[in-house]
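ingest -> validate -> predict -> emit
validate: passed (alphabet ok, no gaps, 255 aa)
predict: started
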Amino acid sequence: MTNFRTFYIGANHKMNSNRKMLDSWCKNVNKIIPNLANFQVFLAPSIPYLDYVNNGMESENKFKICSQNCYFESKGAFDGETSATMLKDLKIPMVIVGHSERRYIFGESNSMAVLKAKNAISLGMTAIFCLSEKESNETKKVLLSQLNDFKNFTVEEWSKLIIAYEPYWATKTQVNSTPENIQLNHSLIRNWISVNVSPRVASTTSIIYGGAVNPNNCLEISNLPDVDGMLIGVYCLDPNHFSKIIQTVSNKKNL
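emit:
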């Protein structure tokens, strides 16, 4: 990574949160988050607990709160959905859209994920847009196809966008891609942004990785030149594992 792009470490609790767990998790993780420029930790708890984590705890959190999803309409008869407008009302600053599980389990299309990102960004939120392929032999084709839906985004919209590359096959098998392939795919994404948006936007957009990151491989991944953070699933649930990742990465001399 470079020192002018923010480095993100995100915890995605998926459908695993409860108040007792969150009380312990937040207490432990808050203790070790360093005060560094261009370094941001965020937590995406299960959606029913967003307000509890953001407003219901005794101590102030050192990390940002992120929603795991949103809908692209502001209101209406959309049973079970949560709008970005509602998240904004709860003072939630970030939202994940297009996660591989939303794509491959719930059947959400890339165009729907782009609409979600656009709506959230219009409200001043930061959207973390996940690019994901289901099989390891289709990476380039799928990533370029998903990126092409961003051709009409403005430079201002890109300033509120984080790209997350999270191969679905890696998250499901917990078998990580090689560092060489991670860098190759992040470079592919950055080059697309440079050609289709601008070199300046490409140089300032954070591209984070989310595929079987753990305390043992996080440092090697974080040292890759086009990796600007990590979106962590399984290994974020235990606050000790997640804290170890934060400490390992934040102690890098070049951060």
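The mean pLDDT is 93.
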